Structure formats: structure tokens, C-alpha cells
């Protein structure tokens, strides 16, 4: 299923393909909760949401993710968008804070990821401007 993560303060929409092959119950819970309006934070090259109303247990949870994975962090009910390494990543491995349920992939990718993350941090994270997943 295709959804969009909208960043109204910077006029950007990110296309996300939800895929229930690894975490079908988690993906269903996300779809049933749409649209989700949330504030976000940045941790290294990961964007993650505040706690959402999506409450699920670990489902085939992973301690390592791939570039452009989208996941739900069951421990904090947060959506995670991996644009690159986190502060605890090791060479060649993108590591979330703790295991996450993979729910999809970021399909539309900015030409300059660092510029995109900087603008998101300036206009959304620092000012607590919500983003919308629909």
C-alpha cells in the first residue's frame, strides 16, 4: 500500500510503500490508524515520531535495518524512517535504538539527504510542527 509522509513546513511529501510481508499485524495496525498526525525527532540520519496510537508487540523485530527502511518501534510506539546511520550504528550497519518491526520502504528519496534532514530538523523538529502520514 502506498502512503505519503507530508512535511507541510517544507512543502515535501515522501512516498512510502507499506509492506506487510515481515510484520503483517503491525502494518494492519498502522493502516487502521491512518491518518496519523505526529511530531518528529531526529537521531543521526533517522527521523522518528513521538508515540503514536499504534500499539503492537514485537513482530519479527530486527536489530539491524537497511537504508530507507520504515519501521515501528514497539517499545515506544514510534514510527522510524531510516535515511542512514544512527548514532549507535557500526560500519556498514544501520542500528536502531532497539529492535523494530519493519513495515515498509521510503520510495521517494531526496537528491541531497543531508539537506533534507537539515530542513526537517529546522522547520519541523525544532518548532514541533507536526507531519502527517496518510
What's this model, at a glance?
By secondary structure, the protein is α+β, with helices and mostly antiparallel strands. It has a single domain, classed as Cyclophilin.
Structure commentary:
It is a single chain. The chain is α+β, with helices and mostly antiparallel strands. It has a single domain (2-121), classed as Cyclophilin (Beta Barrel), CATH 2.40.100.20. Helix content is 17%, strand content 32%. The protein is built from 2 helices and 9 strands. A 9-stranded antiparallel beta sheet has the order 3-9-1-2-8-6-7-5-4. A hairpin with a 4-residue loop joins strand 6 and strand 7. The longest helix has 13 residues, at 113-125. The protein is globular and about 35 Å long. The model has no long low-confidence stretch (mean pLDDT 97).
Topology of helices and strands:
Elements: E1 2-7, E2 12-18, H1 24-33, E3 36-38, E4 40-43, E5 46-49, E6 69-73, E7 78-82, E8 101-106, H2 113-125, E9 131-133
Antiparallel strand pairs: 1-2, 1-9, 2-8, 3-9, 4-5, 5-7, 6-7, 6-8
Please tally the β strands and state the result. 9
User: Which fold does the CATH topology refer to?
Assistant: Cyclophilin
What percent of residues adopt helix (DSSP H or I)? 10-25%
Structural class: alpha+beta
- Give the N-terminus to C-terminus distance in angstroms: 11 Å
- Estimate nothing, just give the exact number of structural domains: 1
- Give the helices and strands as they follow along the chain: EEHEEEEEEHE
Largest sheet: 9 strands, antiparallel
Strand order of the largest sheet: 3-9-1-2-8-6-7-5-4
Q: Can you give the mean pLDDT?
A: 97
What is the CATH class name? Mainly Beta
The rough form would be described as globular
Strand content: 25-35%
Q: Assign the CATH architecture.
A: Beta Barrel
**Which residue ranges are poorly predicted, with pLDDT under 50 across at least 5 consecutive positions?**
none
Q: How many alpha or pi helices?
A: 2
From the alpha carbons, calculate the radius of gyration and give it in angstroms: 13 Å
Amino acid at each position: 500500500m502506498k502512503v505519503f509522509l507530508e512535511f507541510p513546513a517544507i512543502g515535501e511529501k515522501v512516498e512510502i510503500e507499506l509492506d506487510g510481508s515481515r510484520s503483517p499485524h503491525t502494518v494492519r495496525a498502522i493502516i487502521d490508524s491512518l491518518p496519523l498526525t505526529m511530531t518528529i525527532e531526529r537521531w543521526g540520519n533517522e527521523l522518528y515520531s513521538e508515540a503514536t496510537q499504534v500499539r503492537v508487540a514485537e513482530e519479527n523485530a530486527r536489530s539491524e535495518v537497511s537504508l530507507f527502511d520504515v519501521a515501528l518501534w514497539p517499545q515506544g510506539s514510534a514510527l522510524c524512517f531510516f535515511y542512514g546511520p544512527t548514532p549507535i550504528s557500526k560500519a556498514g550497519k544501520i542500528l536502531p535504538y532497539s529492535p523494530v518491526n519493519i513495515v515498509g520502504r521510503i520510495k521517494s528519496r531526496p537528491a541531497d539527504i543531508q539537506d533534507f534532514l537539515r530542513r526537517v530538523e529546522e522547520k519541523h523538529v525544532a518548532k514541533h510542527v507536526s507531519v502527517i502520514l496518510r
